[in-house]
Specification:
Blueprint lengths: L11 E7 L5 H9 L17 E7 L3 E7 L7 H17 L2 E6 L5 H12 L4 E5 L8 H12 L4 E2 L5 H13 L20 E5 L13 H12 L3 E5 L4 H7 L6 E4 L4 H7 L5 E4 H9 L2 H8 L10 E5 L11 H14 L4 E5 L13 E4 L7 H13 L4 E3 H8 L9
Parallel strand pairs: 1-3, 1-4, 4-5, 5-6, 7-8, 7-9, 9-10, 11-12, 11-13, 13-14
Antiparallel strand pairs: 2-3
Protein name: [FeFe] hydrogenase H-cluster maturation GTPase HydF
GO molecular function: GTP binding
GO biological process, one term: tRNA methylation
């Protein structure tokens, strides 16, 4: 991804699903006018999901996901379908391709997306090869209770109809949410406290910091920044106290003790708790920390898949904070990337990172899984604020 592109996590994710050789890749290529996906008459050509960032007029920044066939077979096929299931958890809009009279597998996916409240465009593909497409479409309409788009990827008019229907499914308010929300207005002075520790990439800022700065500039705020050791000097140099201070969560208490009384305080991770997740549930779940014992199990869920670093906030600092409060016997498991367990019942608490690398749909899928299994789930910033005794004093 080039430096001027919208991060994938901020793009609407459009996933294409169907059986092997149902025309998913052909439809993507015809729609985009590019050879985004490999096309072949051999069933199962697409193995792992292929993610392609695009800019589509009427939709905006998006990611197309070309997935493996939902009917793939064998041990490798089972693994491919599992990858497809993970892609479905990230999907904001699903394009479900039906390719013939046998469509039970597709209907199961239709009901999955319906249960997850994922807008779904049902397509009867390869219409140029079907002799009874109208009859099949009528049957599918009866089964799904929604209109079925009958198209051929070789027909330009059909592709235009597909584009119109896809645009119609984009939520009206998509992209209107902002990181800082109602915390700031034009002209507000905002101070960012950003310790440049070993986790910070050399010569660059981490993604949540970059995205927050851009959000504040879009709000036409006055943005200042400093490292933790220069906080007092920076405050003294300002003509007025900042309206809002945004800090790295790991120095929450330090900044809270030094901030002007009138300045609001939050952290990058707390902002992302609301922007990408469910702050109310995170806050409610943080209280579960008080009931943990040395026999408890905590799951730390990172989004990034970087190699473990010394003083890593998720792998070292938060576990150390928890064990200092609860006891050395506390069990803390770590997962990263998309390696999030289906069965969470063994855990007494989950602590998710800010999730700057994931789209909101995927984060909410994790939260819903935790809720269904009655497992409390918080995030880095909210948990650290609770452990620091200032959760009720921060803004979001």
């Amino acid at each position: 991804m080039s430096l001027n592109e919208t991060p994938s996590a901020n793009r609407i994710h459009i996933g294409f699903y169907g059986k092997r050789n149902s025309g998913k890749s052909s439809l993507i290529n015809a729609f985009t006018g590019q050879q985004v996906a490999i096309v072949s008459d051999v069933a199962g050509t697409t193995t792992d999901p292929v993610y392609k960032p695009m800019e589509v007029h009427g939709i905006g920044p998006c990611v197309f996901i070309d997935t493996a066939g939902v009917d793939d077979v064998g041990e490798l096929g089972k693994m491919r379908v599992e990858k497809t299931e993970k892609a479905a958890e990230k999907t904001d809009i699903a394009v479900l391709l039906f390719s013939g009279e046998e469509y039970q597998a597709e209907l199961e996916w239709f009901h999955y997306f319906k249960e997850k409240h994922t807008p779904t465009l049902c397509v009867l593909s390869k219409a140029d090869t079907l002799t009874d497409s109208d009859s099949i479409a009528a049957q599918l309409k009866e089964e799904t209770k929604q209109e079925i788009l009958v198209i051929s990827s070789k027909n330009k008019e059909d592709i235009e109809k597909f584009k119109e229907e896809l645009i119609r499914l984009v939520p009206d308010d998509y992209g209107e949410e902002t990181i800082t929300g109602a915390l700031v207005e034009e002209g507000d002075l905002v101070l960012l406290v950003m310790p440049q520790d070993i986790q910070a990439p050399k010569g660059r800022l981490i993604l949540p910091q970059v995205q927050t700065i851009r959000d504040l500039l879009d709000h036409k705020c006055l943005v200042m920044s400093c490292t933790t050791d220069k906080l007092e000097d920076t405050l003294a140099a300002l003509a007025r106290p900042p309206k809002l201070i945004i800090t790295d969560s790991q120095v929450f208490r330090t900044v809270y003790d030094k901030k002007p009384q009138e300045s609001l305080l939050t952290s990058f991770s707390v902002l992302f708790a609301e922007y990408k997740g469910d702050f109310a549930y995170y806050k409610e779940s943080a209280a579960a920390i008080s009931s943990l014992t040395e026999e408890s199990k905590v799951l730390i869920a990172e989004c990034c898949t970087h190699a473990p670093l010394k003083e890593d906030i998720g792998r070292e600092k938060i576990p150390d904070m928890l064990r200092k409060r609860i006891g050395a016997g506390l069990t803390v498991d770590i997962v990263s990337g998309t390696d999030f367990p289906k069965d969470l019942s063994n855990y007494d608490l989950i602590i998710q990172c800010g999730a700057c690398m994931f789209n909101k749909k995927y984060v909410m899928t994790r939260i819903e899984r935790a809720k269904e299994q009655k497992v409390p789930m918080s995030n880095y910033g909210v948990a650290i604020a609770y452990l620091s005794g200032i959760l009720d004093k921060i803004s979001y």
